[in-house]
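Example record used in the benchmark description.
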Amino acid sequence: MSLSRINASAATLTKNRTENSVVSASGMCVTCVDGCIGMCEIGKSAYRGHEVIYPQPFGVITTAGEKIYPVDYSHFNIMGTAAGAHGIEPDSDKAIFPSVNLEVVIGHDRGIKFRYPWIISGIGSTDIAKNNWEGLAIGSALSGTGLTIGENVVGMDPGSVIEKGRVIDTVDLKRRVKLYQDHQQDHYGAIIVQANIEDTRLGVHEYAIEKLGIECVELKWGQGAKDIGGEVKIRDLKKAQMLCERGYIVLPDPTDPNVMKAFERGAFKEFERHSRVGMVTEESFAKRVEALRKAGAKYIFLKTGAYRPVDLARAISFASKYKLDLLTVDAAGGGTGMSPWRMMNEWGIPPVELHSLLYQYAIHLAQKKKYVPPLAVGGGFTFEDGIFKALTMGAPFVKLVGMARGPIAAAMVGKTIGRAIDNHQIPVYIERFGNSKDEIFVTASALRKELGDTNFESIPAGALGLYTYYERLAQGLRQLMAGSRKFSLEHLSRNDLAALTHEAAEISGIQYVMDLDKTEAEQLLGF
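Model output (structure tokens):
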């Protein structure tokens, strides 16, 4: 079985001519015919070149790699039990799944509280994020969960006011923060502002702390989708030139007269904006953490990607030494914006391996009596089973699961349904549930009661989509936890999982299913 899908994918809008007969080593058609118009990735690259590096169409899609890893989270099963209860009285009338507590508290002063153990771990300057921010921000705030504003939002904003290389005012960042803050309920959740190398040079964190009241800031080393900086496509020449002036790498050079003429005559339709890669050193990291604390940052997070093991060790070591409030570790394979397609599939450490290494490093620090920061892990999680597995795989250190594509999908669907309702063009598949928000969104009646009619009516359908998706995840997770007799998150343990293969057991340290409970079972049977 091939682990990669090569030379043809929906992500690059390419396909093989001989779809049922493909050479496994190259991905080429078994017979490559002179005269073919070039539908495969090689063929499309022959006339569109570097454009085919990226998933398409840009701006309206999120993307994840198609590579099939040798071991993944499906190679583990959740273990339930018929006896006892943890975190609640072992009484059948009390130990019911609605009683499971999903709240999480983190922060050096335990000042950050989430209703649910997940977070949107960074969506920034891409069109897909900007166009769905209303739903994502309001839905996250109403749900009491975390939302991270990703990199390059300030630099990409034509409305940003930048003087002497430092930002003094914004339009987009201010809007994004306010949408969340205006809908936050009972101090649950958090809005986090992330910064990469360009953001740091612009003083984004200092501006967000001083002018927008941001308490949580995040340093970004990378992500799971790619091992280079953030990238987007630009369809406007003036904006491309503005970004070039602000210090971004823009390809091709929008200030070159020949490039300008080629763009104007339609030889190409998009510029690429690239961020630089950071250069991590402990000295610079320590200085930056100190500077943020002096600037008034109450909580400092770090996000790292699927880099080699020594970089993971560096991340958790620095987070420990400098007492960070959260470390997010994002595994290979996914993305929300524009990442090189082959890179997304072929680089980095996959989720099970990366999260297993993270646990090994965390337990080592704990055994040496060193501070272990709260951990969050990402890697294609979308439903309650994956959330349960991620929390137990990293227990007791992993407190949150990072997601992005799932929440974005829920917000996009909610937004689409809202438009259909407004246009009186509800698809039959949806119309069977009703023709209004109150009828279609199953959480609407309870939310209307909680918020009141006026406030409820102001909630966009995209936010209802995310809120309702989160409600499903919460109920599903409570059911799984009740089945394992764990009624609050601190009681989850690695013993709540079993590995289904010896390879999965060896990589993770999770017991193979046939070895699980062996001693206890034999004692019970009098072996």
